[in-house]
TrEMBL record:
Name the UniProt record assigns to this protein: tRNA modification GTPase MnmE
Binding site for Mg(2+): 237, 258
Binding site for GTP: 233-238, 252-258, 277-280
GO MF term (any one): identical protein binding
Amino acids binding (6S)-5-formyl-5,6,7,8-tetrahydrofolate: 22, 87, 126, 461
Source species of the chain: Weizmannia acidilactici
EC number(s) from the headed UniProt entry: 3.6.-.-
Quaternary data: Homodimer. Heterotetramer of two MnmE and two MnmG subunits.
């Protein structure tokens, strides 16, 4: 595959100890060589692969020294992109690293697009698409567990499973071909039918097994979208603060203090929560607050988990009752807050309204009950089991969508067999299953999709 030479700054933009300009492609070493002035006249075109060299970066036009650097030379194919790669380690600082990048660009490289290095690793066959996607998940991981899932996928756990399933399908397809080519052998046809049914059932089971991990996988990857809701002044922001353990949201005794939606990532016993503190839900005249309340309702609709806070020092109000109604059928934990005050809430009624949902009592003022709440959350999502290190999770929504389509296709195969559809017609659905699974690892995938996927990466990755 013929590709031009690309370059980009691969470290964050800002002041740091070191910043790296990465170059990949046929001309990477030659371009770097033009700019590099090594000790004793050492030339980068002469050095062995996978070595690092101290020297100056000099503008070949003006002979002006631009930087002092360490330069790594890595020759294809044992590199990140499988192309020649040079990394110039500059002094960390926006100006210095940018000047070096400019020099690299004026001497023959093109500025890389976001994700283009990883895209090349994919196009050159070092990793498949799901592994490339895992590289991005790794960068974005917000908890250790999410990181472990990404590492597993990057190492090819999911790819292996998918490839195995595709291989099985291919074998069945081969059988069918024989059957179509030699229809005169009755026993072949019979065997094909029996085998097809067995295999299709097996493939269906495997896809279903993978899809079962999707819920938790998605939580690990994106965080469990958790909405804290309740009437004004019940202690929603106090709850967020207790969970975040820093005073991010403003807490006051004026009802309606939180006028917008506040979002925080917290790690509760390994469960990543995307916590959303909302404005207290009530009918309001204040325009600013009303917008906040509307947003809260929207957050509520999109949430995976609801933390419904009730002030137990007051009797239940019609608004409280309405909130219970609004969250019916969702994952809910009810929090009876302000236990330190004289209790006025009808706990029997709360139990009735909660319809089996977990109820936790807290005094957020005294920081009591938060542990119990955290236990309840962990138990709800990972059944208290936080290890499962070897488990393969499907966490990417693109993969989940494709698996769902593949499941549909394999069900069509099974239905076809059941209703006596001619085998060459059934084969069409089988091939479709194969194609859909192939899209996960990038074997059968459109260029436009590739571009869209990789464009979501960081610059220089
Ligand atoms: N300086 C630097 N650090 C970095 C990266 C980088 O590109 N540069 N990486 C970038 O993300 C990550 C490391 N990822 C890498 C993955 C594969 C290969 C690689 O060369 N693979 C070869 C085999 C190497 C060998 O056998 O020695 C291959 O798989 O063919 C390199 C880096 C994290 N740290
Ligand atoms: N006594 C007592 N007061 C509490 C407790 N939890 C919170 N408060 C107080 O209740 C008031 C309201 O708390 P917030 O956390 O701001 O309540 P909120 O639900 O976010 O209120 P809005 O944003 O106005 O909807 C504050 O004065 C808190 O200190 C508790 O457990 N006991
Ligand atoms: Mg608040």
């Amino acid at each position: 595959m013929e590709m031009d030479t690309i370059a980009a700054i691969s470290t964050p933009m800002g002041e740091g100890a070191i910043s790296i300009v990465r170059i990949s492609g046929n001309e990477a070493i030659e371009i770097a060589n033009k700019l590099f002035k090594g000790v004793g006249g050492k030339k980068l075109i002469d050095v062995p692969s996978h070595t690092i060299h101290y020297g100056k970066i000099v503008d070949p036009k003006t002979s002006e020294t631009v930087e002092e650097a360490m330069v790594s030379v890595m020759k294809a194919p044992k590199t990140f992109t499988r192309e020649d790669v040079v990394e110039i380690n500059c002094h960390g600082g926006l100006v210095s690293v940018n000047r070096v990048l400019q020099l690299v660009l004026t001497n023959g490289a093109r500025l890389a697009e976001p994700g283009e290095f990883t895209k090349r690793a994919f196009l050159n066959g070092r990793i498949d698409l799901s592994q490339a996607e895992a590289v991005m998940d790794l960068i974005r991981a917000k908890t250790d567990k999410a990181m472990n899932v990404a590492i597993g996928q990057m190492e090819g756990k999911l790819s292996k499973l998918i490839k195995k399933l595709r291989q099985e399908i291919l074998e069945v397809v081969a059988h069918i071909e024989v059957n179509i080519d030699y229809p005169e052998y009755d026993d072949v046809e019979e065997m094909t039918h029996r085998m097809l049914k067995e295999k299709a059932q097996y493939i269906k089971n495997e896809i279903e097994k993978l899809l079962k991990t999707a819920h938790q996988g998605k939580i690990l990857r994106e965080g469990l979208s958790t909405a804290i809701i309740g009437r004004p002044n019940v202690g929603k922001s106090s709850l967020l603060n207790s969970l975040v353990q820093e005073n991010k949201a403003i807490v006051t005794d004026i009802p309606g203090t939180t006028r917008d939606v506040i979002e925080e990532y917290v790690n509760v016993r390994g469960v990543p929560l995307r916590l959303v503190d909302t404005a207290g839900i009530r009918e309001t005249e204040d325009v600013v607050e009303r917008i906040g309340v509307e947003r809260s309702r929207k957050v509520l609709k999109e949430a995976d988990l609801i933390l419904l806070v009730i002030n137990s020092a007051e009797p239940l109000s019609p608004e409280d009752e309405a909130l219970f109604e609004a969250v019916e059928g969702m994952d809910v934990i009810v929090i009876l807050n302000k236990q330190d005050l004289p209790q006025k809430v009808d706990t029997e009624r709360v139990r009735e309204l909660a319809k089996g949902a977990e109820i936790v009592t807290t005094s957020l003022l005294k920081e009591e009950g938060v542990d119990e709440l955290e236990n309840a959350i962990a138990a709800m999502y990972f059944e208290g089991q936080l290890e499962g290190g070897d488990m393969t999770y499907v966490s990417n929504s693109r993969h989940i969508a494709l698996l769902n389509q593949a499941l549909q296709a394999i069900e069509d195969v099974l239905n076809g067999i059941e209703s006596g559809t001619p085998i060459d017609i059934v084969q069409i659905d089988l091939t479709r299953t194969w194609d859909l699974l192939g899209e996960i690892v990038g074997d059968t995938v459109q260029e436009s999709l590739l571009n869209q996927l990789f464009s979501q990466f960081c610059l220089g990755k």
